[in-house]
């Protein structure tokens, strides 16, 4: 005897080997033996097993569902009874099985009510269900068509309209995502690669920029009219005029000039060195629309070829220390002995005339390591030399002077009409050291001023190698100072603007803008830490993009690099590190030649092949941590 039974939602047939009250041992046509429940058996028959299910399925395929539904009535029914009514006679086992298969295959038409029992779906519910099925069918056809277009690297317009969602905020339940995912899987490509191949990412640069803007500038880079017009009526300050004129030292692309210097000979033989910082705190009221904008952005965002300023241009220009203009400044004066010891420090809020904005590219030929011994002919050479000697003295006082320290290179990126040039500059050059040391002096001493008056501020600290921000004056071991408050870039960093308000309150003997235990101060600090880190990571990411673009632009086929550790190398003349798979085991510092195999700006990847070891070995320098160069932003 054979049985037709249901198991795991499917119909099966088998021969009975033995039978108990509630179960039986059966053997399938393949010879597999198993135990089944007697309750799952729908039919017993003597016909051969071979071909039984196939014949029943073929017969079931001939049965029209609409006609079956019309025939069965509204009452619950057994499939065998319905088979007898349908065929008008006692059905054969094959006919009964065919009816069971057909009923079972159409749950939209027939609701299951138990073993072999069904009930016709109500007309209104059936109509809605069939409409849903038709909609799914049409959607499946549409999806299949779109998938084929994507596989042919053609972007359907409907998918293109969801481009931003697919690129930046993928919704796995969305129709467009499922189309993209299906096509990408078929082509063995990532979603990004497929979108790029189909033309949905016309600019790789703009794709990377767009990801950042969506998260941090969702409303756009532009300022509101209220923020722009905050200082448009012009401002004036009733402040004393400084006795000396100032000059600044910046890169040629710098437009927010925060700091400048002055030198004046005093009657007692001392030299008065002035460190002058732009003073936007004098014109931006706390919690004003302009202040809220600054506290939201928290910093100027830098990237090669572009920047997003913390303040609108209308608020930068009245305070930026542009040459030929008189501007309000927060000044720190150092009274310096001829032996470069500092005998007095004091701070003032005043006006100063900026005589000149010196630029790195024009100044460097006249003021570098080789021009320190004799006058180079530059009108500021003697002043610069004195400030450089003072800077070295300050560096020695911090315990950080090390003439044997391996040179480190900083890189400036210049982008014009999509073409990039990458220019290296030695960190610690006379220009850099001059600016960096005087900024460290100002930031350290103003931090001490706040602490001595018990006025809270925002400090950078370093203990045990960990750099962090705090509202208390704590040591910065990396810089070798007792405290360090970012205060010298108030046009570009919200922390500096906050600290400047506090310093001015002390200098002018007024209550601090942010009192002790200020919740606002702590909130701004936490927000700044997170945001500034994200901005820095984005800047590094975009510099990596332009390094890769430079390799493409210059059609570079071979590069030289230095082994950093294991298979990680650092390229020559570019701030770019990459892994070289297949690199032989080499000593750290070994110079190697690599063949450029693939440059992928979309995925930010460089694939290279090891060629050979170069005979001349590079001098290995440590990866810069948060030291003078990174903390002060001297450049």
Automatic annotation (TrEMBL):
<dbReference type="GO" id="GO:0003723">
    <property type="term" value="F:RNA binding"/>
</dbReference>
<dbReference type="GO" id="GO:0005829">
    <property type="term" value="C:cytosol"/>
</dbReference>
<dbReference type="InterPro" id="IPR057324">
    <property type="entry name" value="WH_RNase_II"/>
</dbReference>
<dbReference type="GO" id="GO:0006402">
    <property type="term" value="P:mRNA catabolic process"/>
</dbReference>
<dbReference type="Pfam" id="PF00773">
    <property type="entry name" value="RNB"/>
</dbReference>
<dbReference type="InterPro" id="IPR001900">
    <property type="entry name" value="RNase_II/R"/>
</dbReference>
<protein>
    <submittedName>
        <fullName>Ribonuclease II</fullName>
    </submittedName>
</protein>
<dbReference type="Pfam" id="PF25255">
    <property type="entry name" value="WHD_RNase_II"/>
</dbReference>
<dbReference type="InterPro" id="IPR050180">
    <property type="entry name" value="RNR_Ribonuclease"/>
</dbReference>
<dbReference type="GO" id="GO:0004540">
    <property type="term" value="F:RNA nuclease activity"/>
</dbReference>
<feature type="domain" description="RNB">
    <location>
        <begin position="238"/>
        <end position="509"/>
    </location>
</feature>
<dbReference type="InterPro" id="IPR012340">
    <property type="entry name" value="NA-bd_OB-fold"/>
</dbReference>
């Amino acid at each position: 005897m054979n049985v037709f039974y249901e198991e795991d939602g499917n119909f099966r047939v088998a021969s009975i080997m033995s039978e108990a009250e509630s179960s039986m041992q059966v053997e399938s046509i393949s010879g597999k033996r198993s135990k089944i429940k007697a309750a799952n058996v729908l039919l017993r028959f003597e016909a051969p097993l071979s071909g039984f299910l196939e014949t029943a399925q073929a017969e079931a395929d001939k049965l029209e569902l609409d006609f079956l539904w019309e025939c069965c009535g509204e009452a619950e029914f057994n499939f065998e009874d319905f088979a007898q009514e349908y065929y008008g006679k006692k059905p054969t086992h094959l006919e009964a099985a065919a009816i069971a298969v057909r009923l079972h295959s159409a749950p939209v038409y027939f609701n299951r009510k138990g073993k072999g029992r069904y009930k016709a779906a109500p007309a209104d519910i059936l109509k809605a269900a069939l409409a849903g099925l038709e909609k799914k069918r049409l959607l499946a056809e549409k999806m299949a068509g779109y998938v084929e277009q994507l596989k042919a690297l053609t972007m359907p317009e409907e998918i293109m309209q969801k481009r931003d969602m697919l690129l930046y905020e993928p919704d796995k339940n969305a129709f467009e995502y499922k189309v993209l995912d299906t096509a990408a899987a078929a082509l063995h490509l990532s979603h990004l690669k497929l979108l790029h191949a189909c033309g949905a990412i016309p600019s790789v640069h703009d794709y990377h920029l767009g990801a950042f803007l969506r998260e941090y500038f969702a409303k756009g880079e532009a300022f509101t009219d209220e923020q722009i017009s905050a200082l448009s009526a012009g401002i004036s300050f009733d402040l004393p005029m400084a006795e000396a004129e100032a000059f600044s030292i910046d890169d040629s692309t710098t437009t927010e000039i925060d700091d400048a210097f002055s030198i004046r000979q005093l009657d007692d033989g001392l030299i008065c060195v002035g460190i002058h910082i732009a003073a936007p705190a004098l014109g931006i009221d706390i919690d004003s629309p302009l202040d809220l904008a600054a506290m939201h952005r928290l910093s100027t965002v830098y990237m090669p070829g572009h920047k997003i300023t913390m303040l609108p241009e209308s608020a930068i220009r009245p305070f930026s220390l542009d040459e030929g203009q008189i501007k309000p400044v927060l000044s720190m004066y150092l009274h310096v002995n001829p032996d470069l010891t500092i005998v007095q420090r004091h701070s003032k809020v005043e006006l100063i005339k900026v005589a000149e904005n010196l630029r790195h590219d024009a100044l460097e030929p006249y003021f570098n390591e080789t021009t320190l011994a004799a006058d180079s002919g530059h009108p500021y050479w003697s002043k610069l030399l004195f400030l450089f000697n003072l800077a070295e003295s300050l560096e020695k006082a911090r315990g950080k002077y090390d003439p044997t320290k391996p040179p480190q290179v900083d890189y400036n990126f210049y982008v014009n009409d999509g073409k990039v040039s990458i220019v290296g500059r030695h960190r610690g050059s006379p220009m850099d050291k001059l600016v960096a040391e005087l900024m460290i002096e100002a930031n350290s001493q103003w931090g001490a001023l706040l602490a001595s008056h018990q006025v809270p501020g925002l400090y950078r600290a370093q203990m045990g190698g960990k750099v962090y921000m705090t509202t208390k004056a704590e040591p910065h071991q990396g810089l070798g100072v007792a405290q360090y408050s970012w205060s010298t870039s108030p046009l570009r960093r919200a922390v500096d603007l906050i600290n400047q308000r506090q310093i001015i309150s002390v200098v002018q003997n007024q209550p601090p803008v942010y009192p002790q235990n200020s919740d606002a101060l702590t909130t701004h600090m936490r927000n700044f830490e997170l945001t500034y880190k994200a901005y820095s990571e984005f800047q590094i990411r975009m510099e990596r993009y332009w390094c890769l673009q430079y390799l493409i632009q210059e059609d570079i086929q071979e590069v030289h690099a230095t082994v950093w550790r294991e298979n990680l190398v650092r390229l020559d003349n570019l701030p770019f590190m990459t892994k070289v798979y297949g690199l032989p085991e080499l000593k750290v510092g070994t110079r190697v030649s690599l063949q450029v195999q693939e440059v992928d700006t979309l995925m930010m990847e460089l694939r290279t092949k090891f060629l050979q070891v170069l005979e001349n070995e590079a001098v290995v320098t440590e990866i810069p941590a948060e030291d003078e160069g990174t903390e002060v932003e001297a450049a």
